[in-house]
From TrEMBL:
<dbReference type="Pfam" id="PF00378">
    <property type="entry name" value="ECH_1"/>
</dbReference>
<dbReference type="GO" id="GO:0004165">
    <property type="term" value="F:delta(3)-delta(2)-enoyl-CoA isomerase activity"/>
</dbReference>
<protein>
    <submittedName>
        <fullName>Enoyl-CoA hydratase</fullName>
    </submittedName>
</protein>
<dbReference type="InterPro" id="IPR001753">
    <property type="entry name" value="Enoyl-CoA_hydra/iso"/>
</dbReference>
<dbReference type="GO" id="GO:0006635">
    <property type="term" value="P:fatty acid beta-oxidation"/>
</dbReference>
<keyword id="KW-0443">Lipid metabolism</keyword>
<dbReference type="InterPro" id="IPR029045">
    <property type="entry name" value="ClpP/crotonase-like_dom_sf"/>
</dbReference>
Length: 233
């Protein structure tokens, strides 16, 4: 389950179990609850602060917990609504946010990274990938809104219709991430970027973010139903 640390003015939210390096950090319902609870803790803090998310090992996140989902298809729409709440919350989060993409970010895991203000990616390993087209899965209305608002049009076309695996250099060239770092330097690079922004934690920051991301937030607020293709990987 995710856990939280603090380094100066920066909260570091780990997407993996403490001490584990082999988890792909999928969004089980309990995982989502824990993620929101940790964000509650961050929001309850006072003073300058910023947020970094990161994991350990091969994966940042592989997104939806498909094992749980296929065992609970009667709960699919509510589950996807709950997944959307993570993206919405990060888009409008009242602190600066930086995703430190330590490994593979696939499907909804890539979307989680995309919901941050900024992204730094490991230089030598890991891909950002939206494999839904290859898996025969449509995007939800909310996921489509998030990706088409946060990526440029042609990058969204390429990422969403080809399932291309972007390494760090590809992702930087496409504007998907803002920078790269070695595995050893990734955490410190993300922390330094976040610390620079911690002083921007002011009441107007979430107001600015909600206006910037109004279309994506509106799409993510649309309830998932069978009619709007409410399933993505």
């Amino acid at each position: 389950m995710p856990y939280l640390e603090r380094d100066g003015d920066v909260f570091v939210l780990h997407l993996c179990d403490e001490g584990k390096t082999d988890s792909d950090n999928r969004f089980h319902p309990d995982w989502i609850d824990r993620f929101h609870a940790l964000l509650d803790t961050v929001e309850a803090s006072e003073g300058p602060a910023a947020l970094v998310t990161i994991a350990d090992g091969k994966f940042y996140s592989n997104g939806l917990d498909t094992d749980w989902l296929f065992a609970n298809l009667d709960q699919m729409h509510g589950y996807l609504d709950r997944v959307h709440t993570m993206f919405s919350r990060l888009l409008a989060f009242p602190l600066p946010t930086v995703a430190a993409i330590n490994g593979h970010a696939f499907g909804a895991g890539a979307m989680l990274a995309t919901s941050h203000d900024f992204r730094v990616m490991r230089a030598d390993r890991g891909f950002y990938c939206l494999p839904e087209v290859q898996l025969g899965m449509p995007f939800t209305v909310g996921m489509n809104a998030l990706l088409t608002e946060r990526l440029t049009n042609q990058v969204a076309v390429h990422a969403m219709t080809t399932g291309h695996r972007y390494d760090a250099d590809d992702a930087i060239a496409s504007g998907i991430v803002d920078g790269k770092a070695t595995a050893e330097e990734l955490r410190d690079t993300a922390l330094a970027r976040a610390a620079e922004l911690a002083g921007n934690r002011k009441p107007n920051l979430p107001v600015i973010k909600r206006a910037l991301h109004a279309k994506a937030l509106a799409g993510l607020a649309v309830p998932n139903t069978t009619d709007n293709l409410a399933f993505a990987g």
